[in-house]
Structure formats: C-alpha cells, structure tokens
Write a structure and sequence with these properties.
By secondary structure, the chain is mainly β. It contains 8 helices and 23 strands.
C-alpha cells in the first residue's frame, strides 16, 4: 500500500527544489499551435480576420465576424521527434499520438431592429488543447561527472545519524521521517547514502564522496517520458457595431495534468569499484487549474484593409505536485554476483499547493482581403516572460526562482504570417510562417522557434472540410539534474502536426 503524505508547510521552502521552478513556468508558457486545421494551415495569423473558432486565441472579437451560427470539431496526429546529443553520442526518439484538440460553436443573434447600430451579438464556446505535453527523449553517452554528485550536493551538512535509517526502521519509514523532520535535501541524501552511492569522507563527517570510480568516463542512460495536457475552455461574447467594427471578450478556464517519468542509469565503473551500477527513478505528477480573460477589437479600414488589437490578462494557475522516487544499486562485495540494494519507498509526497502567474499578452494584427480571391494576414504578439512569477511571493525559494526569472528571461516577440488563395469559392489553399523568440536572454536553454504550415479547404456550402499541416523546430539544452549532475543534453526537437476539421454552418 502506498502512503500519501503531505509535507508540512514549514519545510515547503526546501522541497520545491524538485519541482515548482522556472522550468514549470516554461512548460506552461510555451504554447503549441493547435486549434482548427484552417488556423494551423495559416500558422495562426488570424488576429485581424476572425471568423474561425481558434482565432479566439488571438482576438476575442473574432466571434463577431461570424455571419451565421457555426460548429467545428478538429482532430489529428501529433508527431514529435528529438535528436539528442550527449557527450560524443547521439540518438533519435520520437512519439506519435492522435488527439481530439478542438470542439466549439459560435451562436449568432442578429438584431432585428433596422435602425440599431449594433448589428448582432455572438456567443461562443470552445474547447481547445492549448498545450499537449506528450514527449519523450533518450540521453545516452559518457561524462566525467556522476550521479553521486547529485546526492553529495544534497547530503552535504548532514551526519549519517541524520540521513541514515534507525535500528529496525524500514526504508519507507526512514524516507518519510527524514523528509518530514529535515526536509527534501536530507531525504535525497538518505537515498544516496542508504543505497551506498555515497559515504562520508570520514567518521562523523558531514562531507561526502562517491563509492564509485572509473578510469575514463561514466556511462549514462536517461529516459524521460512526459504526458498530459493544458486544456482551455473559452466562453466568449462578441458584438458588431455598424459595418466596420467588431468587439469581443472571453473568459478562459484551464485544466492542467502533467506526468514526468525520469529513469536514470549509470555504469562504466572499474572492476574494483565498490559501486558497480546505479539507477535513480523519479515520477512527478502535476495537476491544477488556471484562468485568464481577453479583450479585443477588429476594424475594417476599407474593403481591403483590416486591423486587430487584443489583450490577454495574466494567466493564473493553481497547481499541485506529487512525487515518487526510488534507487537501485549493484555493489562489488567480492562475492561474485555482488549485492543489490533496492530502495523504492511506498510513499507519495504531496507538496504544498503553489501558483504560477504567466504575463499578459498584447497582439496587433493586419490583414489584406482581396475579395473572394484570397487574403494575407500578419500577427505580432508581445509577452514579457521576465514578469512571470511563482507564488506565494513570501516563500524564500520562490523569491530566488523569481529573481532568476527576472535575470534570465526576456520579452518574447512572436510573428505569424499566413495567406489563403480561393478557387471558385470551393477550394482554398493556405500557407503560413511563424517565428517565436526564445524566452531566455542567452537563447541557450531554449532556442528560437521557427515553423511552417500549409493547408487545404473544401467548401460544400453548409459544410466545410479543412486539412492543415504544421512543422516546427526548436533547440533545447537540458541539464540532467538541477543540482550536482548538471551536464546538459542538446536536443533538436521537431514537431509535425496533421489536423482535420469538420465545419457546419446554419444559415
């Protein structure tokens, strides 16, 4: 039976080392370009156009552009491929998954009063997969650094009496009691000490050394699997004023669920090394909710030129983390096969709840509409990621993380360009380009994103079927662990999304 044990709030500032960091800010702040197939086919450049349910992401006035009540549902295949380099080794690992990523409707209420300047009111409801976390990559290579560096960093300052088991105490009880009484650092030290990965330098010392040795480099294998979603439910109200102005506002409700499994193995020790093999597993489960609101307008300067302006409030997330850990080692005891040590406490730690606030977004858009022939559209979005925050603000660890965010993050500019050509009102061909700056000032941990898209639409009157394809590329340099073993793996990530949308319009 597994034990679920909440950490006491008095040690909340310690345990956040394992989660609740600026990395969590990025995982929520880096959106996927999903939505309808038409939206993706034009790389999401819809802020001055509207008339598409996913355009509500850019501008809530988009619903007011609809002339008739409409319904849309979208699904498709998501592919992610990671080319990973670590040390002198490289490998590739990919993942394919089908998702139902959009479902929504806009209801149009026309004003029957002929003399009113308010032409119509629209009510929109839309579900969208704002971010799907499904991903996996494999790190396989050599390093002069060891997993022992991780455990010694945490064990430093504690005696073996503090991080060791008491007489008759089980691994599970010791893991729980040490975490409760001394905090996360001591708990990690316990895992390393009791599995014989590390030992004190001398009797009574609070400094630790590795029990493993190698002539060349240690061999590392780390498999990271991530799954989950950030679903967004939008309730929208729009209206048209006169012939040329559209206004709208939206309330956005998020549900978040994310699972990260990190499996690490180390070997390559000398035959005489006491430590011969080490494995370290971590499973982190995050869940919670979020909220934001939007305001926007779209205007027609003339029959050809349109503009859009929109504002998204900060997005406030309230999240919860649960963690499971385990260590396995094989030792050289001189008995041939060697001794095995397995420490997998049957305990789940539920961390104190916390909040993440993502900064506001500002979007400006322009579009040229060439009658029934086609269109060109451009969006620019600005979001200052250095204003992101982990809360509560009075938490000392969060204060340090927030200072890192201010020092390391920057304002992000996103450019989207899309176009559409129509043939006899039946066939539409689409293409787009997207560029998004890195949220990091140095551009190293996360690089710039570049994406291309294409699509086709078939219009059968009330029914329209669209297909959209999107490709993006981005570079990441991810450390194996935040402490001790901080060697980075270089990941070239590419995504390929193929979406299909069914639209139905009521006349």
């Amino acid at each position: 039976m597994r034990i679920v044990l909440p950490f006491l709030s008095i040690i909340a500032t310690v345990i956040t080392v394992s989660a609740q960091t600026k990395s969590d800010v990025l995982s929520l702040g880096l959106d996927n370009l999903a939505g309808t197939a038409r939206y993706q086919g034009m790389s999401g450049a819809f802020g001055a156009l509207g008339g598409d349910l996913s355009a509500l992401n850019n501008n809530p006035a988009s619903s007011a552009v609809f002339n008739n009540t409409s319904f849309a549902i979208t699904g498709g295949n998501y592919n992610v491929e990671n080319d990973t380099r670590y040390g002198n080794s490289a490998n590739t690992l990919g993942l394919d998954q089908f998702e139902l990523n959009q479902l929504g409707s806009v209801i149009v209420f026309r004003n029957t009063q002929a003399n009113s300047v308010w032409r119509k009111v629209t009510l929109g409801f839309n579900y969208e997969l704002q971010n799907h976390f499904d991903n996996q990559y494999l790190v396989d290579g050599n390093s002069s650094n060891s997993i022992a560096d991780y455990f010694t960093a945490y064990a430093e300052g504690f005696t073996t009496d503090q991080i060791g088991r008491l007489s008759g105490e089980s691994y599970t009880d010791a893991y729980i009691n040490i975490g409760r009484d001394l905090g996360y650092d001591a708990q990690q030290g316990f895992l390393g000490y009791e599995s014989f990965i590390i030992d004190p330098e001398s009797a009574g010392s609070t400094s630790y050394i590795s029990n493993g040795s190698t002539i060349d480099d240690y061999s590392h294998l780390q498999f990271v699997s991530q799954s989950g979603y950030d679903n967004k439910f939008t309730v929208n109200l729009g209206t048209q004023y006169g012939q040329n102005l559209y206004f709208g506002t939206s309330l956005n409700f998020h549900t978040v669920e994310r699972r990260i499994f990190k499996e690490f193995e180390e070997d390559g020790y000398t035959p005489t090394s006491f430590l011969q093999f080490a494995a370290f597993d971590n499973y982190l489960y995050t869940y919670g909710t979020g909220f934001s609101f939007d305001f926007g307008m779209i205007g027609k300067i003339n029959q050809m030129l349109r503009f859009g302006l929109s504002y998204r409030s900060p997005t406030w997330y309230r999240l919860y983390d649960e963690l499971e850990q385990g260590v396995f080692t094989r030792l050289n005891t001189g008995s041939g096969a060697g001794e095995q040590v397995s420490i997998y406490p049957a305990a789940i730690f539920r961390f104190p709840d916390y909040e993440i606030q993502l900064p506001s977004k500002y979007t400006g858009s322009l579009a040229l509409v060439f009658g029934e022939v086609g269109l060109i559209s451009f969006d620019y979005t600005y979001q200052d990621m250095s204003n992101a925050e982990l809360q509560p603000l009075n938490d000392p660890f969060f204060a340090r993380e927030n200072q890192d965010i201010r020092n390391q993050f920057q304002a992000v500019s996103t450019f989207k360009l899309g176009g559409e050509v129509r043939f006899e009102r039946i066939v539409s061909l689409r293409a787009g380009y997207r560029f998004e700056q890195s949220p990091y000032k140095d551009g190293f941990t996360v690089g710039d994103l570049e994406g291309y898209s294409a699509g086709i639409g078939l219009n059968f009157g009330r029914t329209r079927i669209d297909m959209g394809y999107g490709h993006t590329e981005r570079e990441f340099n991810i450390p194996l662990y935040d402490v001790g073993l901080t060697d980075t793996s270089n990941i070239q990530r590419s995504t390929n999304n193929l979406l299909f949308t069914f639209n139905y319009t009521l006349f």
